Amino acid sequence: MRVVPERHLNWRPPERNRTLRNLGYHVFRLSLAFVDGMDLGEFPESWLLDQAPDDLHDGPAIARYGALVRGRIGGWFEGASPSEFARVIKVYYGPQSGHDLLERTAWHAAQHLRQLYALAERLEIAAPVPMPVDAFQGLPLPDALW
C-alpha cells in the first residue's frame, strides 16, 4: 500500500464495491481481528466491515497502520501458548477453535493480498516486493481471484 498513489486510493474495481484504500485497510484489520477475537473470545462480523479511518489518507499511512498491526500480531503469537488454539471463539458464523479461526483469517487475508497485487498490476503500480506465494501453500484459497 505504501507505493499506491493517492489518486488511486478511492478507485473501486468493477469486481468489488470496495475502494483500494479500504481493501488495503481490510487486509490489516481482518488480521488484527484474529488477535482481538482470541483476546476477547468473540469475533463479530462488524469488525470486518470497518472502513479505513480518515487519518489513513494515503498509502504510507495505511502501510504504517499495517506495521502496527504486524507488531501487535507478532506480540500476541510470542506470548500465546499452544493451548490458546484449542479455545472456542464465538465467531459471527458459528463457534470456531482458535486454530480454525487462524486458518480462515490467514486464507482470507491471502485472498485479498492476491487481489491487491492484481489491482496494482492493472494500475501499473510496481509492487516493492514479489507476492509471497510460498506463504499461501496449504491454504484453502479459491481458484478464482474474485
CATH architecture: Up-down Bundle
Task: Give me the secondary-structure category.
Answer: mainly alpha
Looking at CATH, the homologous superfamily is dinb family like domain
Helix content: 40-55%
Instruction: Give the strand order, joined by hyphens, for the main sheet.
Output: 1-2-3
What is the CATH class designation?
Mainly Alpha
Task: Give the termini distance in whole angstroms.
Answer: 19 Å
Radius of gyration: 16 Å
Order of helices and strands: HEHEEH
Structural notes for this entry:
- There is one protein chain.
- The chain has 146 residues and is mainly alpha-helical.
- It has one domain: dinb family like domain (Four Helix Bundle (Hemerythrin (Met), subunit A)), CATH 1.20.120.450.
- Helices cover 46% and strands 5% of the residues.
- It is built from 3 helices and 3 strands, in the order αβαββα.
- It has a 3-stranded mixed β-sheet.
- It is globular.
- The two termini are 19 Å apart.
- The mean pLDDT is 95.
